[in-house]
Structures are given as structure tokens and as C-alpha cells.
User: What shape does this take?
Amino acid sequence: MKKIKVALIGNPNSGKSTLFNALTGLSQKVANFPGVTVEKKTGTCRLKTPEGEPVTAECIDLPGTYSLYPKTIDEQIPFRSLCDPSGKVPDAVVVVAEGTNLKRSLFLCSQVIDLKIPVVLVVNMMDIVNYRGIRIDLLKLSEKLGVKVIPAIARKGIGVKELKEALAGTLPVPETEFIDTAGFAPLVVGTLREKLGLKSNYAAFQLANNVEFITRFAPGEMGKQDVRDLLKQHQFDGTQQQARETLERYKVITLLMKECVKTETKQQRPFWSRRLDDILTHRFWGYIVFLSVLFLIFQAIFSWAAYPMEFIDWTFASAGGYLQEALPEGVLNDLIVNGILAGLAGIIIFIPQIAILFAFIALLEDTGYMARVSFIMDRVMRRYGLSGRSVIPLIGGVACAVPSILSTRTIQSFKQRIITIMVIPLMSCSARLPVYTLIISMIIPTDPVWGVINRQGLVLMAMYLIGFFAAIGAAAFMKWFVRARDRDFFVMELPLYRVPRWRNLGMTIIEKVKIFLFDAGKIIIAISIILWFLSSRGPGERYESLKVQAEQLKATDESAPGLRELQSLQLEASYAGKMGKWMEPVIAPLGFDWKIGIALVTSFAAREVFVGTMSTIYSAGSHAGTERTVREKMMAEVNPVTGGPRYTVAVGWSLMLFYAFALQCMSTIAVVRRETGGWKWPAIQFVYLSALAYLASLLAYQGLS
Amino acid sequence: MRLSELKTGQRCIIDSFTDEMLKLKLMEMGCLPGEVVEVVRVAPPGDPMAIAVGSYVLGIRRSEAETVVVREVG
Assistant: This one.
């Protein structure tokens, strides 16, 4: 079967993703572009040539851009994909143009045309074009540009069929040069084109301008250094050449627009969009609306997600119980139920929250509101080394750091993005909630403050505030240490408000959940299995003999009085127990004993494991309401040194602060590694957060006791 | 006169740029010398500002707008 490669390119908000979704549907795959942390969306589309022969088009969705010249990490991709000197360019490029901003879209289109790659120009949003009284002579436009032009309304699926037909047929290589870039620097362009065997003058011109972004050259007569020397020899001034090219292109486009586009009524931004902006960026109402939106997201993440999460929890508990009975007893049974299944449950339980958070983020992006949030928050956030676009990821961190870190991709500057990623885990995520509630219920009295305010609730709020201020403080601190890689531009479009495209929304959710499930999931499962192994095996004979004793006792009487104590001793003798003992000298100054040490280690898989581990360690039965019994057992625990209770106010605060700061989350580490493309940032993050946690706990414990 | 000096509702014509990198970015987005630009609104803290060029609106920081030299319409 014939196979072709098709790339989609267009301005941000041009409807490119909608068109991509329409073409590829559920065959989409998301991966990272090699070397950079920009996601690469690909998908396949089945076509038929006019002769009825099937063709498979492998489509790639390039990040939205205004020009082929890279300014941010995202924008390197279109350039690299279309001007790769080793010659792997797509067979056809679909340029998606916004009909209402045709001039600017034609700029990008003309660049692709000059690369001499077959082009289809899709003029999207024709409904708005007509509504605004703009008449575009598509035939003439096609004739003048020398490429096929298709009118479309992507969100209604209009034009998709025509686009598919066009792609299946033979597309001509554009013949005319839109502008003569060879004339700008004849010697440089000529030499590069000849020595590197490039298809067009413009590819050579682009290469001369962006040589530093090229990672590999085809083996041949010229390498990177040779190109640099050539540019130096001919005093090629990239900035000046680019400016000249831009002006030249727009000159031609302006003439073209005069010939092909007639505006019958005065082109104006719709009244309602301006009116909405008056409210949403208002000095008072703007922030009120923003806070309300945040409140809604919070509510949704905590309350709506609770039901599906309970259901997932219940399903896994039942499945675990069933499997434990159904499978033959032994190591395999234990591994499947307590290792793999428990690990799986730990991942899948987060899906509702992730889906809801991303639904909201996508909704805010798609309607154009996110740009306004960045607009009104930029000034405030910049003071702390963050950007207006850091707001939503930070807020999302209260639900879960994992999707929030994924959502930092909208931040253009590398520095601001890294800082945002580094401080997100300080926001108190939902996994800390069970830890906080358990400890608060032990150390904080229930009597109300001033007769009305719930004291425990107040402390809980304080924990969230501590997290928030720590994040802001850490960002302000890191501002001085993280080096900027690219210049930080804010310049961005405030697009027209529009109704969300539900199909895109659905696709985004599926895509984000997939990333979480498969990429982070692999690591979480691995850790769960390791933890299972460490807590169910022990060095020497002691562990085994304890295990045999416990099993014998259990076989005779499930609720035998000494059974739980025996299981406790068993845990102490396991590798995990040994680890806890080994950690004790280090964590003793924080008021923690070896049992808490084990919980700290197991919490590394996920923080909420704390409660589960505590219930195992304190051998609370699983018959009664688990948490209440854990709490009672923990409260009854005696500190052998002081003779008083183990969990004093000082230990409680120390523990809570430790959980507030420490990066005890495998998924976060995995996702930071994925997003930053290496171990450097997750390592720094882990070290600084651990140090912060240790210090805070030390101060709290020593100060309070 | 610089773009950053304009008040909300004021219109001017783009004349030139003082920052080479920003110039390229702005020109690619359609802010070309000779285009009419209008300050549509300013974010509540006084920064960034929103400018209308052609049929679209851009958000731009004050520091960035300072690099755009403008002249009066007419």
C-alpha cells in the first residue's frame, strides 16, 4: 500500500488540532520529539486515490507557530521537520489558515511554498469569514500561490473530505518562488544548496539562519562548522536577513490580499468578545471570576472525582479479595494481589482527578479564557520568577502534581517552565489529604475557635497555605539560579472567545490519561513490586520463622490475640523493617521512630500509602473502620524513652510538615524526568525538597518539644 | 514616541523597533511598520497591555512595548 507523510502546520488557534482530530481520530499517538520536550502528535489517516487505490497518510501535528523561524522550544519543531538537511521532509504539508487572519497565515504558507514541498492551503473558519462580510476569491488565491486551496469549517467537519481527496491525489511541487531569498545572499544560498543537495533556495536560506538548531547533518561535504565558516566569510547577518525576508513577504502578501480579498463591511472584533474582556480582565471582576473558576475546579476535583474514585477503590479491593481466594496460595498470589494489583490500583485511582483537571484546563484553553488569566496574572507571577501561564498548573497541583506538570507545556520560556515544575510538588496535593486528616485528628482538639470555627479545619487550611507560600518562596529563590535558555517573550495572542469544541476536549482527556497511565504507570508498578518484595522478605532465618509462626496461628484462629503482634514483628524483621531501623538515627531528631521510617519509605510510591502502612505496622485489624482503629492504635503507642504517647503535638506537626515538603511521589519524579528529558531536574528537585522537609520537621519537633 | 506610552483607546502607526529579536517576532505576527495599532486595554496591575493590530489582539508586556517606536496617525 502506498504510504505518504503529511505534516499539519498553522498559527495557534487556527483550528489545526480540530482538523488533525478530524483526519486521524483515535489513531493518535503522543510521543516526545527527540531531544526536546515537545510532544509529537501523530496519527494515521486512510485515503483513496481517484483511481481507488488505498493510501495511508501518516499525519503529524506540528506545534502552532507564526513562522518557521524558531523562537521557543516548541517552534524549533516546524523548522526541524520541514528543513531537515538530511532530507526527511514530509511528502505534503497542510497549512491551516485562519480565514479571518488570512494575511498572517499566508506569511507562514509562503514560507512553506518556498521550501518547494507540496502544499494544501486550508482556509478555515469560513463561516466567520462570511459572517464578517469578508469575500475571499479562493480560485484566484490558488492560482496566485500555485497551490491547492480548500475552504473549510473544521469544527463542523466541512472541508475534511475535500482535504482527504486532495492529499490522496498527486499534489504538485510549487513552482513559483514567492519571494527570491537567493537574491538576498546569493553566494551563501548557492553554496549551501549545492553542497548539501537541498531542494530549494529557501531551505538553504533557512539553514543559514538557523544552523545552530540543526542537530544532524547528512554525511557529505559540509558539517556545522563549515556552514558557520561560510556564513562568517560572507558576513551573513541572520537577524537582518530575517527582517528583510519578513518585510518582503508581507509586501507580496499585501498585494495578493488586495487582489483576492474584499471586505464588504468594516472588519471588527465582535462586540460580545470585547464586552467579555471588559469583565474578565476587569480590575475587580476579573479576579473575582478567576477565583470562582478556581473554586469550581477545586470542588470538581474533590467532590466529583470522589465517586468514581470510590468505585475504583472498591473494584480493586473486590478484585483483590477475589483473586486472593481464587488463585492458589503462595508467592505468586501474594505478588499479584499485594504487589501488582495494589500498584495498579494506586495509579488508576488518580484517573478521575486527572481527567477532570485536564477537562477544565482544556476548556479554559479552548474558550480563550486561559490567555486572559495569563494576561491579568502575568505581572504578579513574574515577580516570583513565574509567568502568567504558571497559574493554572500551580492551582492544579492541589489536585495532583502529575497532570499539572504535564500542563506546564503552555509556558513558553524554559526558565519559567522549569521553575514552575520545580515548585508544583509543594502545593498540597490530594494524596496528602489522608495523611493530614489522620494526624490532625490525633493532635488537634475538636473544640471550636471563637465558638464557631472548626479548629481542625483551620489547621488543614494552614497546611494548604504553607504549601502555597513555600511554592511562591521557592520560585522567588530559584529565579536567581535557573539560567534562561531562550529569551522570554510574553507577546501572545488574545484570541476571540469561542464555544469549546467538545470532540477536541474528549481527545485531550484521553491523550493525557494515556500518558499518565502508560508512562508514569510503568514506574509506579515497578516500585510497588519492589516495595512488596522488601516488606514480604527478610534477611536471615528470623523473618521466615516469624512468618511460619504467624501463618500457623492464622490457620488455627483468624482473630487469635497474639497474631497481630506477631505480624508486626514479622514486618520489623523484613527488609523494609531493617531499612526503617537503619534510618532511625537520621530521623530520630525529627521525632520519628523506625515504624514511621518504614512509612516514609513506602510513602515514596504515593503519599497516601502512609495510612495503609501505618495500619499494617500497627497491625490494626481490617474488620472495623480502618482509619479509626489506626488512629486509636497510634494514639495508644507509647514512646519507650519518655513513657508518654508516641504521637505528641510536636511529632504530629513534624510529620505533617515532612509530608508537606518532601517529594515522596514516584509518579511526580517519573513525569518530571519525562518532561525535562533527563534525570538532572528530578534529582535537584528531590534533594531540595527533602532538605526542606527535613529542616522544617527538625525545627517543628525541636521547637515544640 | 513609544508604544508603551499610549493610553487605552489611543491609535498610532508603527514606525520602527529598537530590539532586533522582538522586532522579528512582532513582524512575523503582523506588527509591521506602517500598520495601525490601538491600545485596547491594560491589565489591572498596569502591565501587560493588549494591542489591536489588523483583526486580532495581542498581549504585550510594557517592557516589550517600549521597544516599539510609533508615530501619530495622520
User: Anything to note?
Assistant: Chain B touches chain A through 32 residues (CB under 8 Å). Strands of chain B lie at 11-17, 36-42, 49-53, 56-60, 68-72. The helical segments of chain B are 20-28, 62-65. DSSP finds two helices and five strands in chain B.
